[in-house]
Amino acid sequence: MRVLQSYIGPGPQTNPYIIQLHDGLAATPGVEPRSFSWRAALLGGYDVFHAHWPEALIERRGPLSTLGRSTLYALVLARMLAQRIPIVRTVHNVELPRGIGRVERLLLAGTDRLTRMRILLNEFTPVPPAAATTLIEHGHYRDWFAQYPSVGSVEGRLLFFGKVRRYKNAEGLLEVFRQLPGGTASLRIVGSPSSAELTESLRSAAGEDPRIELVLRFVEDAELVREVGEAQLVVLPYPEMHNSGSVLAALSLDRAVLVPDNEFNRALADEVGADWVIRFEGDLEASDLERALAATASLRGRPDLSRRDWSETGRRHLTAYRNAILRRRG
Description:
globular; alpha/beta; 12 strands
């Protein structure tokens, strides 16, 4: 089973989820995962196209680049349609990305029309009526991070980490944190912002508060493990949270998270332990930070991530690929 993945690489800055998935597939008898290139997509041999974030292949990078990538992707879709190559789609995000144009929307709609199997990371993912789906939970990062030394937490340390996008509400977290009275609380924002404008907005929201530190760049895994390890609590106040690799990364490093109250996070709390997934309702407030810090002051042990083991991931994906081929032919 030759499976062309939609990611390029994997490389040094590739999402660890992708690398662990790639390794799991490569170790599974009957599966040959192949990394994406335009040449491979247009001329190479493959039985299934596995799409993760297809918008990344056509995202805007300048007029000529955008036109070229959109044209190439349209040709790839045409080839898959003509040769009856099915698409398997891992549903990482529920909604289309913001800021995309009409052409990108049409290409993503074409991707959906050729999709014959959707892999869901949790049971609350909405899908089109009659869509074929299979549940394969997002795996943990414990094995991935095990090579790095662990560190103890700093009392009162709050941490926001990951790719910084406007929808993740890091600016709102900064404004709420500044309402906390002085004391042991501190906040670090760690990650690369999506634009220069967002960088400036974050610096403005942080103001001159000496308790806030901004590390606005990509950080390697060893540094990330240290940052999470030093945190007493990880705060991820995304207004709309459906799947989050950052939540799993924090839990894999035995740090509690403060997240919005929704179906996904309630189920996650039931799965891993309510002490590890603290939720807030509505807009994040300073009282939510105070409550979560108090709740985690003496937290010990580890969250239960037994459902997130990678040992069966490759086999379950192979089953999804086979079912997609059957549906495309049938």
